[in-house]
């Protein structure tokens, strides 16, 4: 196996610098980035689409317009059968979240290609049935090949996110399976 790095040409428009965000590839030609932590610790709630359909050597960023409803600023994003799923994370007051949101990427790609006539919302908050894990941030998540189960591992579940107060931090080592039944 050989690894090589290459800086992509993406033009002057790009997302602002950030960390603690996540990105996922959709349809092998697009990268979606949502949320994260910006400069000076601000939480970001923006969504960006990188179009790599030009042979994967160059691309162009497009900021996705805000359509209501949309998830509050956070991290933890994964691809799910052509859709983007957001779970957990922290808001700008550092409160952890436990909600699920889904981004309809086919509608997003249609919107970005110039058709402003959308019959449905791009973001949708999902209803959760049954018991769910504690609110969490900085966790890992992945989806199985069937697209029916999401696995969520670890993360910060209690306390403050402040290095000087390490006693208030609690990292979780549990693995959760979330079964998805999507009616979009």
From TrEMBL:
It comes from the Eukaryota. InterPro entries: Kelch-typ_b-propeller. Signal peptide: none annotated. SUPFAM superfamilies: Kelch motif. This is F-box/kelch-repeat protein.
